[in-house]
Design goal:
The structure is a homodimer. The first copy, chain A, is an alpha/beta fold. The first copy, chain A, has helices spanning 14-25, 55-63, 67-71, 106-119, 167-173, 249-259, 267-276, 301-304, 313-331, 335-367, 371-386, 394-399, 405-423, 428-431, 435-446, and strands at 6-10, 29-33, 51-53, 75-77, 79-82, 90-93, 101-104, 123-125, 130-134, 139-142, 151-154, 157-160, 179-184, 187-194, 208-213, 218-223, 229-236, 283-288, 291-292, 296-298. Chain A starts with 5 loop residues before the first strand and ends in a 7-residue tail after the last helix.
Chain lengths: 453, 453
Amino acid sequence: MQSSKNIAVVGSGLVGSLLALYLKQTGHKVTVFDRRPDVRKVEFSGRSINLAMSNRGWKALRGAGIEKEVRKLALPLDKRALHVNNQALYFQPYGKKGEAIYSISRGVLNRKMIDLAEKAGVKFQFEEKVWDIDLTEAKLFTGASEKSEWKEYNFDLIFGADGAFSRIRHKMQRQSLFNYSQHFIDVGYKELSIPANADGSHKLDNASFHIWPRGEFMLIAMPNLNGSFTCTLFMPFEGEISFESLDTETKADAFFATHFPDIKDEISNLKRDFFKNPTSSMVTIKCYPWSYEGKVTLVGDSAHAIVPFYGQGMNAGFEDISILFEKIAEYKNDWEQLFTAYQEARKPNTDAIAELSYRNFMEMSSKTADADFLLRKKIEKQFAEKHPDIWVPMYSRVTFSDRPYAEALAIGDAQRTIMDKIMKLPNIEENWDSEKIEQKILELTSSKNVLDT
Amino acid sequence: MQSSKNIAVVGSGLVGSLLALYLKQTGHKVTVFDRRPDVRKVEFSGRSINLAMSNRGWKALRGAGIEKEVRKLALPLDKRALHVNNQALYFQPYGKKGEAIYSISRGVLNRKMIDLAEKAGVKFQFEEKVWDIDLTEAKLFTGASEKSEWKEYNFDLIFGADGAFSRIRHKMQRQSLFNYSQHFIDVGYKELSIPANADGSHKLDNASFHIWPRGEFMLIAMPNLNGSFTCTLFMPFEGEISFESLDTETKADAFFATHFPDIKDEISNLKRDFFKNPTSSMVTIKCYPWSYEGKVTLVGDSAHAIVPFYGQGMNAGFEDISILFEKIAEYKNDWEQLFTAYQEARKPNTDAIAELSYRNFMEMSSKTADADFLLRKKIEKQFAEKHPDIWVPMYSRVTFSDRPYAEALAIGDAQRTIMDKIMKLPNIEENWDSEKIEQKILELTSSKNVLDT
């Protein structure tokens, strides 16, 4: 058991709330600061992508004893539903029977997490803006504005859970030997929605993650409990088909009618949201070190924001908390050592999921509709089903496992090299499910120790 | 001719002073702000590395008509002098006969640049700290501290020449779609010195850039006009032999005596500086875009700080000014278009010199003493001398040319591939200067179009 500390968590988002709950359960005094209003008292922002909770997320929730509670808010999706123009709807199961990712509204989950943390005794201070931090002394300074009178708080420890544009990290960044990068992609996103039918049922299959891959842009839809779908349109900011170019109702009408004919009844809803909701950017953020002595450390997006194309942003943030508490169990009251152990354990893995997410961005919009890509997936899938001990697909290693992300990346790369060779075999289109191909894969895998876990 | 603007330059360093002079000569009203005191009125900091002015630097000075003036402050170095333990001093000429880099003290040059700019009518406001900038309105806010009362200035245009830790860029960084990275290396540096002989002469050859390559660490020395040498010790911050580990006079004595026996008479000077001068860090900074509309743009280290191992930091910054004024000549009063053209022209080239400088960091300390590396250099040199039209060494392309850095990098990579093949030829140590090897290189180069300029 640790001796009780007076701890501040900056940020009441998903990771901040979960961390606060864990810390409270460990016996600490916990205050959460957020510059924004209480998310339970305001409308959702219209700028969020539905969450896909998977193994790592559930594990962290289980650690705080709140998995069951959260399961009630989630809908299992066991497959992708690919809406390719002029083709029948095509389903790709995510994993083995019983494996699924879980669609949850970010706002709904965040409200629940804050409720649970508050009930456990965490103190929340909303609409209080942190402007500065004294890293050495673990002091926070808050106020109405950067130039106004500031209030000073003394803590034993401070956690920065304040997201991609973290104020805490911003202060750390001004220090020598702090490595940092922020890289925006030239694609933005916008939240759209498809309401429920009059009887409250879903208008599309509600056990699928729906994708309309269109090359340069892409629409996705994830179901909500209330029968609606939260959709996300990913599209370049500028260019021929872009958020900038779709600047009139007529152009938007034509855009939705041309590219999404199977949901053309929804055009008026999609269009309304298109002009109402903001266009958001996506960024990969990396930094190191995450902690300052035994006083301050970063968790979640503030340490490692990633693009959302692997559905792992929240899962990776929640896994930070699992790993942090593994280190707490190991090092007890030596916060400096445990922060060091935590960041050293996490950094290679959050770099790996950043890389995987970025690759999926490159892949998802273009290749999910590509015949070659689909064949590759089909071969992999068949082989994996026949030889589940030899071949666990990358997606499953990331999504349905809690083995390190870096391991998934390394094994995935080895698998890719094998599949590159397979796809170059003559007449692979015809004899992809022949025994010869299966033997060839077996042969290639047996010489690749890296596939062992 | 441009219409006259009211322009602020933030930063009175080398690039800021040169830019201010150029702008003044073009007919603009120019005010330079610097948070530090006038460098002409204070002692030098004891944390600078001597500058190596080369082609790109001289070209930019020539453009402002101050080349001759600055030449008087510089000493030409036409070769490296390699001090390898237990070996005779070894000289590597930098280029062809007549080609040299020029050693100048940073402080001496900066004082001269400010003098020249001031004489031309540039206004300098020292010890005035810029805390904020309104990018859209081109306003600067200055004050005693971040939280004090601020003074507001209105300008037509603002240039950020405020170095690696630029305040102007810091503000731009908080914007969406601004890409940024800062990467520190785990090696630091410290300024040391070797004073002149009693008669004012230099204690080492004063037409050489002296290097003591020692694997994990390295000492360099560059001559000053007054007979002294400015030395720089590059060494890891932490580890067995490091700034951290050399923490007593006894250890420092042993360190200098063991590793630098040919300058052991200087130990007391070196040691005094070692404990007096600060240890500085080195960082590579990249960002994009550099400009904000037609209002604000970055020049020099604020846009592209690099590690000092190619001697190109100042040269690259000065070249920014050459290119900026090429674009000014082209686009006249369309500042938005000319800022865009400037950043697009510069970015690939500053990325290239960042890469080359980082590679030199990896190479310089370890390989300059390596037999294989020396042989490779010897073969290249001999071939380049025989076939100057076919083979211009990378160092010369960077240092004695004003062709784009990106081109030098691409050609250098092609040359490296060729040399890798040559170095793998059997018995290369014996027959390196045979006609067969020469023919082989000719053959390899003829199939590499990339070597053409």
